[in-house]
Batch of 4 targets.
Target 1
Amino acid sequence: MSAAKPRTAAVLGTGTIALGWIALFAAKGLDVRVSSTRADVKEHVTRALRLYAPSLPDGAVPVDLLMSRLSFFADVEEAAAGAEVVQENVREDLALKQELFGRAAQAAPEALLLSSTSTLLPGDLGALLEDPARVVVGHPFNPPHIVPLVEVVAADGAEAAMVEAAVDFYRFLGKRPVVLRRAVPGFVANRLQSALLRECIHLMREGVVTVAELDEIVTASIGSRWAVVGPFRAFHLGGGPGGLRHLMAHLGDGLERGWAGLGTPPVDDVTVRTLLDQADEAFGAYDYEELAIWRDAAQNAVIAAVEDVGKPN
Amino acid sequence: MSAAKPRTAAVLGTGTIALGWIALFAAKGLDVRVSSTRADVKEHVTRALRLYAPSLPDGAVPVDLLMSRLSFFADVEEAAAGAEVVQENVREDLALKQELFGRAAQAAPEALLLSSTSTLLPGDLGALLEDPARVVVGHPFNPPHIVPLVEVVAADGAEAAMVEAAVDFYRFLGKRPVVLRRAVPGFVANRLQSALLRECIHLMREGVVTVAELDEIVTASIGSRWAVVGPFRAFHLGGGPGGLRHLMAHLGDGLERGWAGLGTPPVDDVTVRTLLDQADEAFGAYDYEELAIWRDAAQNAVIAAVEDVGKPN
């Protein structure tokens, strides 16, 4: 098998992440073997494809064409048999995931075994396999058919060729895989999100800004900035012609003083009530699906805009 | 005077922020009275305008036309005389800013007095004025001719009409002003940036990712997300049809557990050396000006892309 030119992939589960992968895998021309015990699995997947088909990264694809590339199996072994890649997306239950990987590995001894987990570590997922390091985390950012990032996280002792195969597979899908140098709980993007959210909740709780005002501040400043350059490159450019070296010399202990002043809000009744009340006011009038479709279209437009500008010289 | 249709503005200082404001003020057709004691002020400003003219928000403007709208004064009183708005951007030295606002207020008793300060609080800046609350912070995000956000921060007891006038002025410039409900050190956007950067530096220091990999992770995920929806709206959509209410019930103490696991890196020799070495590797090959021009063009493209998609229904 070649993960750079795969033909058949199994998708375990039919939750939100699984549905995004199914849409993308089918849009890229793969035969997709869906494993689910849902009685209404075809209707369930069709509904999701209708929602996602217009915002697929290479443009809209007819739902019938996508559906024609799918087959459905109640049994994990049947779904995995003949698949070059297995992407697992069941609920965050370690024992369940271990069992499924054990069964998939039996049915597809050569397949690349990938997990979408956001909270479990790769070394634990393959516990029932002869080589536990055979399971690689390929953690997407929701929704996986839109957001380019996949965090690739391997267990200690994983073969380099297998990690490369995972990277090749995600590149084939048009994703931007980044291999973490070691596994940490929460990986990277969710930890960064969590760090930012803590300060957002602090400032909201302290009455400095409302939920709606905070979102406006971010989209009008650091959001569009970080769509273009990451935090480090932004920091480097903030230093002027002397770059980061000049900035670090100039800041002195300013970084640490700034960090010491950040908030550590409790998630108590006041926090939750204030957050939910302000969220109702900010988003309550919107239909969830319409808002999600709008977000996906806008995010695709942002990604395309950055690509159009091209790389710096 | 009307801050929604101003004709004349004074700009105090000729640092990076001042230069961005000068370019934008002139591009919007204002007569700009620049206060600077630099002997080479005209050459200095002309160089900056050449750099900024192509990335002005409504499209390129000839440098000669921009320059024809500027006049230069060594004296603060002369610059402020006749200006409807004074935007102060000198170095972060409280005594200096207080003195300049005292002198500007004498020369222009009716002018709107605005400060670009990022670290000082509005109540302190007007200490030498009859009404200390007359100075309002209008804190831009660098570069001010590109990034839409202006944080408007007033002292306790500031007149509502004056805060409105500041908002009108920044709207006239095409900015997205957000009024903070109270003043906190660092305001909002820089505090959020600081919170994220702390975790970035932690993950870099711990060897999970390099500087370049971390930037790739952010631009490929949360960056393009936050250019479109802020952190709270993203969080709300992450909850599915049940929104934030469902998510908060589902998370339990997950938020606080996640926060407890975030890093608190020391800014010691190891941190600084690792950061600078990796930054050299990531950005060392780029010319600063070329990289800044590219960032500005790409950020303008992102802002335009989101505007083109329009608001959700």
Note: DSSP finds 14 helices and eight strands in chain B.
Target 2
Amino acid sequence: MSLLDFLIGRPLASSEERAEQIGTAKGIPIFGLDALSSAAYGPEAALTLLIPLGLAGVTYILPISAAIIILLLIVFLSYRQTIAAYPGGGGSYTVARENLGTFPGLLAASALLIDYVLTAAVGISAGIGALTSAVPSLHSKTLLLCLAALAIITIVNLRGVSETGGVFLVPTYLFLATMFTAIGWGVLKTMLSGGAPQAVIAPPSAPHAVEAFSAWLMLKAFSSGCTALTGVEAVSNGVRAFREPTAKTAQRTLGIIIGCLVIMLGGIAFLTHSYKIAATDPNGSNYQSVLSMLFAAISGRGVFYYVAIFSVLLVLIFSANTAFADFPRVCRVIAEDRFLPISFANRGRRLVYSEGVLVLAFLTAALLIAFGGVTDRLIPLYAVGAFLAFTLSQAGMVAHWKRQGGQRVRTNMFLNGLGALATGITVLVVILAKFMEGAWITVVTIPAILLLMYRVRSHYDKTLEQVASPGPLDIEKTPNLRVVLPMQRWSALAKAALCSAFAISDDIHAIYVSGAGEEHDDFREQWEQDVVAPARAANRPVPKLVCIESPYRFVVAPIVDYVLELAKQHPDCRIVAIVPEIVERRWYNYFLHSQRATLLKTNLLMKGTNHISVLNVPWYIE
Amino acid sequence: MSLLDFLIGRPLASSEERAEQIGTAKGIPIFGLDALSSAAYGPEAALTLLIPLGLAGVTYILPISAAIIILLLIVFLSYRQTIAAYPGGGGSYTVARENLGTFPGLLAASALLIDYVLTAAVGISAGIGALTSAVPSLHSKTLLLCLAALAIITIVNLRGVSETGGVFLVPTYLFLATMFTAIGWGVLKTMLSGGAPQAVIAPPSAPHAVEAFSAWLMLKAFSSGCTALTGVEAVSNGVRAFREPTAKTAQRTLGIIIGCLVIMLGGIAFLTHSYKIAATDPNGSNYQSVLSMLFAAISGRGVFYYVAIFSVLLVLIFSANTAFADFPRVCRVIAEDRFLPISFANRGRRLVYSEGVLVLAFLTAALLIAFGGVTDRLIPLYAVGAFLAFTLSQAGMVAHWKRQGGQRVRTNMFLNGLGALATGITVLVVILAKFMEGAWITVVTIPAILLLMYRVRSHYDKTLEQVASPGPLDIEKTPNLRVVLPMQRWSALAKAALCSAFAISDDIHAIYVSGAGEEHDDFREQWEQDVVAPARAANRPVPKLVCIESPYRFVVAPIVDYVLELAKQHPDCRIVAIVPEIVERRWYNYFLHSQRATLLKTNLLMKGTNHISVLNVPWYIE
């Protein structure tokens, strides 16, 4: 237990909830890392698709970024309203389920869960990828580094919300500071130079154009750039983690996150255009990230460059944290509706939904291992989930306002409707543009998860039906007990077990299993003398001794068979199978005793019926 | 279960013992493979040490082989007598323990057990080594092939004695046939050519001498060659596996094994001398085994050569089988004396001591994995164990005859005394000659195993003392039962558990665990209505409802604490903790229910006392 204390910290009492609640300063690292870090890959993803257009591509990044920023603002306004309407936590699942029905809710939930697993895997692998391109000697350790980063994030999250915010505070604000400095500096230079700044280190010249402008290419670039929007819904899922007034604090946090993201996306688009930075082929030997070229063009490769690149790297790795903050919360809400195992709703020792954290860590590790730590191929998969959830959530909000009515109902409905429309169109665009590259996997996986959730729920319903409302206790019907007691020799343990048997019933069957043709006169004699005689003397019913021959040397099976047979013959009785057991206080003595008691208990439990219970009588060896 | 049937076969009834007993034909593969296969490495091991003497070394192989053969014959005569004297199985352990005392017995046993583990690992690795030198493309798969061979041998042995003999019959007799053919053919050629036969393919010429003759070198060569004697004691351990008349059949089997081995050792020595075959450096690039050079010299590299080499390879791999035949038997005898866990004495479904087979397989696999499948470095370790066991066993026989008296007591004592003396000197020689190369490891490991065995025994003695002879049942002292029943809601399961509680006691404590500050009025109300009211109406004592607040959300710990506290307060009572449990018939539903019942049972068993028993009341979900 002390190792657990060391790793995860002492248990927190339920009453310490308040101390675990967070303000804006910690909320940004916890719920905003995913959104903010997308500044590091969103524009790059769009620019990469524009490579075939040559230098002209750099021009098109401006309208594409503008479209993405507009979409981002629509989604922001929409989620701002959701937070106000659902101060108890308004994830896509809750909003869609309450307003559109169970199916849309679960659809949103499963899309979102897939998206979070992908976010965690891609975030870690992108960050470690950036690290290994900076320090090539680490390249062979990629998977190990990924898993180490995953382990750190998992442990930090298990330590509780407040601690998580503290740990990720420094990298987040370092990243924001360097990004803002670079953008401000670059914009200043551009203005001073009249729109054509001189790069300190010139980016590689853009390749020759091999394709002409086409709407399809623009759509693909736009849908790639849309990965920048994933992570926006995180805050609305986690409203309850915020300090009072929760909704206001959450809204402010979301506002700051989106504000920062808009500045970064806009700034990067503006500067890549004015410095004429085209993306380089990610699979080519001269690959350099857009941010790296941008920093070098603005500041040269000095201290600032390396600090900035390092902070980008940290933020990419820790962007996985947003998934860890939200995945367990989403699972918990679904589990409370019994569509996932109820254990997801249990709060662990640090008031965190530990099972969700661990399941996410497990799934992420599986993905990382399956792909050897390089998850580039997963990038096309994500965004689909996020945008599907966005759409359902916004559509749900429209229904919410319609039902709710109120003063500003039209404005509200318009804002959320606009969000639903914009994100709905984006889903279609993303699926179309990326279907063959992997989006089809998401499209196939979602129904599988949905099916699983429905089966979980139907199992719980069936269980509940069988167990619930049993009516009052019928005291008259207290059943007769018959006791079955296996006994191989007359020992202190056997005696204790037999005493217990006498205490609960007068109908005792002692079972002795012998090998084929084995003599058991010794045991019979001892039985007569030490059991039968005292029972007669005390005028109590004599226990029945049943000897069973076991030709195949099995000991457990004949006892189980006897118990089952007895239960069948006396359906009105309750059978108590006594299992005497020698218990070792020290684990290393475990191997010295036969594990028959454990085997017998397991077998009785597996094959038994509602009328058979097992009384485990232990005897401790000191 | 059907997979187990397929792999290991249907269970054999104890009465089928006779059909599992074997004659000479199957006895040779089962108990003789280790001894016979030593013809393939014993002479080579001696010749390798003679390399520094150049061509002169080939001459010295004659007296060294003669010494080894004489030792072998002495050990044979000695063990022949042991078999006659111990028809129930006369391993070194039994003989030494009965005649010299417990300590020498256990010393012999632990030496022998180490030796068997090494035999298994070295046999498999030597055979696979021969295979990979023949087919170099398999080299990278060495460990995998070793483990596959180990798996095959393990499964065959788990299938029973008779089957094992059948499987290894063909390779054994193929090996004997090719060896005898080669030796007969070579001897004939030598005679016809007047002692200087012409090799079909000449062996590489012997290296130049770099050392002169020394007694130390002879001793080292002799002790290396002595590895040829390991495996001789196998038959005497397994006498009981033979058909009636067991002792005679066993003696005949041993005689044939030793006869074959003597012919092979003598023949190889004679022919390496007449063909002037010196060993080649095993680490050199031109390495070729002595047998390979010999076969090539006699027959050229035709079909015969390849068949012969292939049979050597099979016999080397399967020589591990002798260890699998004997290790479980030795463990079983020791376990019956309670110096090893008693489970070693249980016969599995195929009448084999399965646990010994599995433990040997596990230890061998661990060695193979630790050494990557190349266990050359282990060769110096083995022989020590075997010869130590030989010595103790022969010395025990001397004491046996002395006590027993009888007609031929002097001859018998002389034969076994000679055996003890010869093998005793050999142990010293082997330890001296190979101490630094690894024999010290055996010398250190034996005391560790001895210590373990004594601790196992003392634990059993202590247990027995606490459990045995409890005296007759005191029926008057049947204890009062107090029942503790955890209850979180009023369900069919809770009702069944409460019915059981009423059936066994009038003193019932129902425990309700609530979170800090949680309301539980609903439950109280239902309790009053569905439990208290019917109990009052039936004029039965009302169960006590205990509500416990759990600030850290733990549920199991407060219940366990309550039970322990109650047991402390009422030392004269027996506490029955009822654990209601929802049981799933399908394993994949396992995750859908909290595992609190399992946790509670485990915790109660771990922390409990002799006065606390656990009544598991299951409720099956159909």
Note: The domain at 475-621 of chain B is CATH 3.40.50 (Rossmann fold).
Target 3
Amino acid sequence: MVKTHPMWNDFPNVQASLLECLELIIEKTTIENKEIEQTVIDLIESQGKLLRPAYFLLFSRLGNATQDAHKRITSAAASTEVLHLATLIHDDIIDESAMRRGSETVQSKHGKDVAVYTGDLLISVYFELLADATDSVDIIQLNTQSMKRVLLGEINQMTNVYNTDITYEDYLKSIKGKTAQLFELSCYEGAYFGQCDPEIIGQSRSIGQNIGIAFQMLDDILDYTQTPESLSKPVLNDVKQGIYTLPIILGLETHKEAFLPLLKKGEQLSESDLAALVSLLHETNCIERAREIAKSYSDKALASIDTLPSHPEKDALYSLTKTLLTRHY
Amino acid sequence: MVKTHPMWNDFPNVQASLLECLELIIEKTTIENKEIEQTVIDLIESQGKLLRPAYFLLFSRLGNATQDAHKRITSAAASTEVLHLATLIHDDIIDESAMRRGSETVQSKHGKDVAVYTGDLLISVYFELLADATDSVDIIQLNTQSMKRVLLGEINQMTNVYNTDITYEDYLKSIKGKTAQLFELSCYEGAYFGQCDPEIIGQSRSIGQNIGIAFQMLDDILDYTQTPESLSKPVLNDVKQGIYTLPIILGLETHKEAFLPLLKKGEQLSESDLAALVSLLHETNCIERAREIAKSYSDKALASIDTLPSHPEKDALYSLTKTLLTRHY
């Protein structure tokens, strides 16, 4: 029985549509190979937050689309989650991560072969859902460009691994690609498929981008402030793998001499080194400063949402964004 | 300087168009990350046979398309090679292959991370080239289904690894997906984009499928009859990895008791075991029988090509297919 993350209990309308998206994803990934089919079902049942289709659906409801568009909206909304799942699975191959969302990762449980093919299968399903949703090749092309930008963000992050000269601009470029791009696409496509007024379509992209940036920054901050239990995933993993995110980058900017000796240990960072690093981040105010920067992006997103024309679903969009960007999980 | 495989020196018209496809692929994969960009260039320069775009181009020339369609034809023809390259790179991650086309594989040279992302980037470029080539979402959808079938063929092969009860039907199903599907698509799309008469479009799929099946069977036979030097890749690799192809399957069908003791050694097969296996394949006539089966498919393809309406490029199509399916390289 497919369920959504409990956060959606407070948004029953969105929840019902998200369940339709999940059922469609399972239908489209039903194949003869039961191991791969089950891999997708396990991922779906691990109750990710479904933020990309949720933002798609919320924007779509601000528009003038009639019931006729329902199937297309479900299909295109589902496609955003499918691309997200594909990138998660392929990222876990690269990170050699053992855990994701409180469960073993696909590659840890089923091996690299299943992980590579399941990711590839999901990319084909991503374009299949899009082609089911639209007669416009321009929308397909928009998605190929978005997928490319997501990958370039990931690749940019990979290039900067263990780079202690990484700048805030490098970081922003990576997260605009790897995370914000898909939020931007989801908000825009929601507005497009929901046949919103041009002014909403026009604002949808930058709202999505600001939400995506704030979301990733917050995620990166939580990696230094939460426990594995509260996040259902390991913490302090990025730094060991040489992925320096916002708090560390702020530390390197202002207290490079203090951070370098720890960072230079690379993969050899011990538990006590990690504890020292976390203390240092707090002492140098990096966590607090990172929170302020993240807040500046979430404030921008909320301010833009606030200017959208009045609509019952606008409040849901605002309150979801507010909750999401002040979360501790 | 991009060059094609020397086999195309005998087909200068096709060669010129193939070079345009390669240049377009390089253009579309020009990105800021030089390692990944170079990875694609290296693959292109390793001079694969470019069979999929070649069949696309040959079929397109049997049609009525004018010069106006030239760019679209180049773009769609290039897309078939790009999907092929993406699957090669991802397959090498799974096989942990060290060599391909006489060069180190992407993952062996650059690591798994570059291999995963380069494959994914190529999948996005595949759909980008298609979206550049057509206004028809149906063509995009045809490609999502083809890509899915290619993957299902690969997945089916993975499922049967070390399965000594594998049947000829299992094998045929795998190669129809993993290889023949893309030949079928290339011939069909060539006929479609070249605006061929309906009778040619109608035959293009089955010609492509028969060529693809014969091509893969021949490839699998060469693995047991050639040297690493003549093929520019390692030989006898499949059987160690538990991938039982046509010759072995014929052996298991008729002389199971003779093959089982060797196959049961799995990854532990020594050089002398492999030599014994090759001798056994010859003694039990499996190589010869496999050649006959492959020939039945190439004969079907050639007979269908023969029935196509008379056209200067028809002879090139026939002679390429004849050469390709009787090759020893």
Note: Chain A has 15 helices and two strands.
Target 4
Amino acid sequence: MSIKILTIKEDILSANEEKAKANRELMDKNHILMLNITSSPGAGKTSLIMQIIDRFKPNTRIAVIEGDVASSVDANKIGQQDIPVIQINTVGACRLDANMVRKALDNLTLEETDLVLIENVGNLICTAEFSIGEHKRVMLLSVPEGDDKPYKYPLMFTESDAVLINKIDVLPYFDFNVDNFSKAVKGLNPAASIFPVSAKTGEGMEPWFSWLEKSSTSSTI
Amino acid sequence: MSIKILTIKEDILSANEEKAKANRELMDKNHILMLNITSSPGAGKTSLIMQIIDRFKPNTRIAVIEGDVASSVDANKIGQQDIPVIQINTVGACRLDANMVRKALDNLTLEETDLVLIENVGNLICTAEFSIGEHKRVMLLSVPEGDDKPYKYPLMFTESDAVLINKIDVLPYFDFNVDNFSKAVKGLNPAASIFPVSAKTGEGMEPWFSWLEKSSTSSTI
């Protein structure tokens, strides 16, 4: 039984990779930078998106795609910023896939968009396996989750271009060693850029914003 | 394609349900209480298990099964308590299933066990769908994750017998409304018992321990 499932999974992943590639080509054609933002539940993805909107909205046309198992709590929050927001409810699936994202992209006016921020489902496992066509994968790991997470969820850290240590404003109240965590991440993924930030207070945001600007080779952000 | 996947998923779930039932019967035959402990990554499952061990070890023969995608960080921690610990590495799967748990149970001396504590993979989605044969499903939601999680991950809350609000020692530093959260949980699952606790400081543990003792109808804890 398990071998059968594995085969199906490989088929799904391979079909997904094709669709992800098509999404990326669509973004490149329209000079759009697309980010896939992942984390555990409650680690601060929506707050990070709000920070990006605050910083870049004056000069950048931003659209947001929200992935959730259920509800539109986050989409409603972001919708107040007067930018296009598409909510995907995955109806039980633990991650977005390239096909779901394509349907959302088809509902955006791409020629009037510079930056697409995609908030994936809150999960450190399934989201690591599925590309959605992003240029950069950005993960948040929040201080209260603990500094041992790279050992427990290695693929997530291996697959991310940037790792944001979020909620550094509460560092004094938790046993979280930033150096040990950073070493563990670098051990898995030497190319990863690591940014300690607080998406709540704005602390540490500037280096991360600079990284984001540099990531934008074809778009106008 | 999506309909095909759904059918396979139903087959898997139905086969799992059979195996879960067999696990439960095996526990009942041996007068063992079995708990399925779930949460997001880093919400405090291992700390809760350590609290249960501290409180019940003098009079109760406890065994622990640890589920992780990778590593044995938690099993090593718990192994220092001089009780049997079985580590299951799911190799990418985002939840334990009844079959994995059965293999672990086969490595325990059941006639010398009163309480089996199973730490599921850190995840609020996949773990909700798979019974492993537990008598009680216990979930932790930690304060830093936010009080909106019942809306986003409803199945997890619907399927849990007890919901522990963990990390109440850091309530002053987060926007978490215990009343609003509890109302949202009760809206989804009126029968759920809710316990605000700190598995770190031990605060609030006694009511939860009492609930646990009452849950034990056939075992000797």
Note: Confidence is low (pLDDT under 50) at residues 1-7 of chain B.
